[in-house]
Amino acid sequence: GHNMPKPANEVYRLLASQKHGAPQFTPEPNENLPNEYRAVGVSIGDVGIWRDGSFVVLFNTCRPMVHSINSAADVPEGFTPFPLRTRDISRHRSYHSPGSIISSAKFSQISLSIGGSSAGFNFEKKAHLFCRRFFPVTVGGSITFSLRSKAAAILVLPDGASRENLIPVEAFRTYVRQYSRQWYAFAQDCVARTGGSLFVVTGCDKATSWGLATSSATSAAVGFSLKFAVLGVAEGTLAPQFEWQDFGSATVRTSSSNACAENQCIFIRGIGGDFPPS
After folding, report:
1. Which residue of 35, 109, 251, 253 is 20 to 30 Å from 81, comparing CA positions?
2. Which of 29, 64, 36 is nearest to 48 (CA)?
3. How far is CA 74 from CA 37, 66, 67, in A?
4. Nearest-angstrom CA–CA distance, 261 and 259
5. φ, ψ for residue 25 (rounded to 5)?
6. Is the peptide bond before 98 cis (omega within 30 degrees of 0)?
7. Nearest Cα residue to 24 out of 206, 250, 191
8. Which pLDDT belongs to residue 124?
9. How does residue 274 score in pLDDT terms, banded at 50, 70 and 90?
10. CA angle (58 as vertex; 54, 64 as ends), nearest 5
11. What is the pLDDT of residues 42-76, one digit of tens each?
């Protein structure tokens, strides 16, 4: 029988299997949030809910009440920020190398084309060539993936991505437990409406550019292939533009070419679950 295809944002959750955290189907910041927040994107201390594969921030518990993410909406009763010092956060700028490819499924074949010359690799035989799973980002180049999987998610990071993690996690957990009742009461409207549960961010990976794709087979035809291409340099910037090509029935998304700040959040780690703790 023909099953209904799963929504793309659900298929994209398969990337969680790669152990980088919860993958965000919309890495770009919500345009309705204050500029000050959008400039940095999802941050450690954000408290929010997950909705359709995206993290929706309610407030930030490590920032003062006067910060726009807190003053623009509102904060829970008895709000007391968690004191965060710079050295409480570990930061690695190139945690994911430029040209990284993160996939939930094995590729059956990969072929690279760099300015007209192409090289194909059959994965079973030459897997060692792609242990590092990255591709050279050159204008006019492209990479074509083939997968034999019924459902798969792929993330390409042309410029790589940074990683930030909170170091004093135990002290932070204690703090979260102390205030979770107020937070839950505050978020009740949102959470009850969406059936989500509260989530507090303790780590995130951010990029300036990305391309993501999901595919789920609806019929007996298992497998798909798609191409990620590096186009010319975008007008008025020095950044190359990227696009998915020949993607068939896959769902694809790409960062906009005017994103230059590292505020595109691809993976989020944190403390989740149904508050208040029983």
Report:
1. 35
2. 29
3. 14, 10, 11
4. 6
5. -70, -25
6. no
7. 206
8. 44
9. low
10. 130
11. 999 999 999 889 999 999 999 988 888 888 778 88
pTM surpassing 0.70? yes
Q: Give residue-wise pLDDT tens across range 148-175.
A: 888 999 999 999 999 999 999 999 999 9
Q: Closest Cα to residue 263, out of 28, 24, 98?
A: 28
b or e along 173-199 (b: 16 or more beta carbons within 10 Å of the residue's beta carbon)? eebbeebbebbbebbeeebeeeebebb
User: What string of DSSP letters covers 169-223?
Assistant: HHHHHHHHHHHHHHHHHHHHHHHHHHT--EEEEEEEEEES--EEEEEE--SS---
Question: 233 is written with which tokens?
Answer: 């340099």
pLDDT at residue 62 in the model: 94
- Cα–chain-centroid distance for residue 82? 25
Q: Taking a C-beta distance cutoff of 8 angstroms, is the pair 41, 263 a contact?
A: yes
Distance of CA 38 to the CA centre of its chain: 15
Q: What is the average per-residue pLDDT within 232-251?
A: 80
**What's the number of CA atoms in the CB half-sphere (13 Å) around residue 233?**
5
Residue 269: phi, psi to the nearest 5? -115, 150
